[in-house]
UniProtKB/TrEMBL annotation:
<dbReference type="Pfam" id="PF08122">
    <property type="entry name" value="NDUF_B12"/>
</dbReference>
<keyword id="KW-0679">Respiratory chain</keyword>
<keyword id="KW-0472">Membrane</keyword>
<keyword id="KW-0496">Mitochondrion</keyword>
<dbReference type="GO" id="GO:0032981">
    <property type="term" value="P:mitochondrial respiratory chain complex I assembly"/>
</dbReference>
<keyword id="KW-0999">Mitochondrion inner membrane</keyword>
<dbReference type="GO" id="GO:0005743">
    <property type="term" value="C:mitochondrial inner membrane"/>
</dbReference>
<dbReference type="GO" id="GO:0022900">
    <property type="term" value="P:electron transport chain"/>
</dbReference>
<keyword id="KW-1133">Transmembrane helix</keyword>
<keyword id="KW-0812">Transmembrane</keyword>
<keyword id="KW-0813">Transport</keyword>
<keyword id="KW-0249">Electron transport</keyword>
<comment type="similarity">
    <text>Belongs to the complex I NDUFB3 subunit family.</text>
</comment>
<protein>
    <recommendedName>
        <fullName>NADH dehydrogenase [ubiquinone] 1 beta subcomplex subunit 3</fullName>
    </recommendedName>
</protein>
<comment type="function">
    <text>Accessory subunit of the mitochondrial membrane respiratory chain NADH dehydrogenase (Complex I), that is believed not to be involved in catalysis. Complex I functions in the transfer of electrons from NADH to the respiratory chain. The immediate electron acceptor for the enzyme is believed to be ubiquinone.</text>
</comment>
<dbReference type="InterPro" id="IPR012576">
    <property type="entry name" value="NDUFB3"/>
</dbReference>
Amino acid sequence: MGGHGHGHGPPYTVPNYKQFNIKGIPQLEELEKALAKKGLCDPWIRNEAWRYHPGFGTRWARANKTFFRGLPLGLALAVITVGVSKMMGGGDHAHAHDDH
């Protein structure tokens, strides 16, 4: 009951939180300094560090993956659909019109 592991262990491994550090990430260091100026401290700021990790990719790579992931399959299916439609005579738009 519960899950699709089929006894092979978890489908992913949760990384150790200690591997993520804001040191060396300018955006998060700047945020930490801005909070410190106001007398605030965010102990959970490291939870955003994974977004800046090189393995996560650049903004363009993430956007490309998000918006164009299904494009090749969708385009292929559209071409096949139009081809089948043409072969079946569905592309024929000859309708009977009354000239009254």
